[in-house]
Amino acid sequence: MGYHAKFMCRPKLPNVVSSGWLLHQSLRRVADGTNVFASDQPQGPLSAARQGFLGGLLAHAAAATAISTRTI
Question: What percent of the chain lies above the pLDDT cut of 90?
Answer without folding.
Answer: 11
